[in-house]
Amino acid sequence: MRRSDVDSGVAKAGETASTRIPGGRSQSTFGIAARARRGTQEANDASQTCGPRWPVVVGVEGSEADATTLAWAVGEAVRRGAPLHLVHAQEFPPWFARDRKLRESAKEEAGARAEELLERTRALVHAREAAVLTESHFGWGAAAAVLSNAAREASLVVVGASRREDEHHLTLRPVARQVAAHAPCSVIVAHDPGERTADGSVVVGVDGSRISEEAVGFAFEEAAYRGTGVVAVMAWEPEISAWPMLPDDVGSQRELAVAALAESVAGWRDRYPDVALEQRVVQGHPVRTLLEVAPEAALLVVGSRGHGWFPGTLLGSVSSALIRRSPVTLAIVRAPGA
Q1: Cβ partners under 8 Å of residue 309, min gap 6
Q2: What does the DSSP assignment read for 20-43?
Q3: CB neighbours (10 Å) of residue 262?
Q4: Which of 13, 100, 151, 295 could form a disulfide bond with 107, CB atoms 3.0-4.6 angstroms apart?
Q5: How many domains does the chain have?
Q6: In angstroms, what CA-CA distances link 301 with 167, 220, 221?
């Protein structure tokens, strides 16, 4: 994409979803003033594994849900000291593409509407946080493909939890599942808190895997930035094991779960001593357990994939279920290089 196309805030009509959004490799281009907020510096240090100052990508759909999505995205951009990339996608039905004249006319009109939408969105972002630098991109194609492509050089993708549904727009929860499955970075699915408080704790599901420990770190960084605490939850189910070294009695298996949870949070607890930590070991299925805890949370955090070393835990395998069913904002964390 030429620089003039980026500055205009919209790709030329006819550009495909494969159009590359410039990443955050040039710190001089994307750097913003540091914010003196608790936990921000630690979060910036940790984000180096995703690329220095790599941008936060946010999906813009042009609905009321954008307000919640943008609030999360702007907060993450500030926390990471990163630029914000606004991404809007449009997909035509297959039958529409057969009429070349109609297709070109519609693309021109859609491009103009997209540019107007992205300009309005930039104004909303700067009204909320004037220091955040923004770029924007309009891509033709399925929303999941456009967002996943934009995520190639991003530290995080933020999408909304709901979307209007007609022949031109897919529901966003399927899009969120696809982006979470294919994006090389972590994904936040933002929910409007409604009548629930947005000041709750950060709840993180733990299963003892490497990605689970990355999720714990993400949870502590978020809690430090937001001035709240962490609730670390390990859900486990009794398992009769064929391995003779593993105990068959429920009490001993619970002790293993308690030890696994303590080990998973120990390093991050030392790094963030001012963040309150509550550890819960619950006998039950991870999906059911986390959904029961979710209403007290401002943010629910899980790993993108799972199967930790502790038997009976299936946390990573339930991330897609939580995208469908979580009543609160959900972060699906991907380990660097995973």
Answers
A1: 208, 209, 260
A2: PPP-S--HHHH--PPP--TTHHHH
A3: 15
A4: 13
A5: 2
A6: 32, 10, 11
SS3 state at 250: helix
DSSP-assigned beta bridge partners for residue 166: 169
- Write b or e for each residue in 290-322: b if 16 or more Cβ atoms lie within 10 A of its Cβ, otherwise e: bbebbeebbbbbbbbbbbbebbbbbbbebbbbb
Segment 202-250, tens digit of pLDDT: 999 998 888 889 999 999 999 999 999 999 999 987 765 544 555 555 6
pTM of the entire structure?
0.76
| Residue 3 CB contacts under 8 Å (≥ 6 apart), including other chains | none
d(CA 282, CA 261): 11
Please tell me whether residues 228 and 173 are part of one structural domain: no
Q: Cα–Cα distances in Å, from 45 out to 221, 265, 280, 308? A: 10, 18, 28, 26
Sheet harboring 56-59: ordered strands across?
A: 134-140, 84-90, 56-59, 156-160, 186-190, 330-333, 297-303, 201-205, 230-236, 277-283
Which of 224, 219, 246 lies closest to 331 in space, CA to CA?
219
CA-based R_g, the chain, Å: 21
Helix axes 143-150, 172-182, angle to 10 degrees: 40
Domain of residue 264 covers 201-333
CA-nearest of 265, 260, 257, 258 to 301 is 265
Asked whether 73 and 56 are in contact (CB, 8 A), the reply is yes
Which amino acid, 323? I
* Per-residue CA distances from 209 to 5, 18, 48, 280, 334 (Å): 43, 33, 21, 17, 12
Q: Is residue 183 part of a domain?
A: yes
What are the pLDDT digits (tens) for 18-67?
333 333 322 222 222 223 233 444 444 444 445 547 999 999 988 888 89
Q: Let me know whether 141 and 238 are in one domain.
A: no
Alpha carbons within 13 angstroms on the beta-carbon side of residue 125 total 30
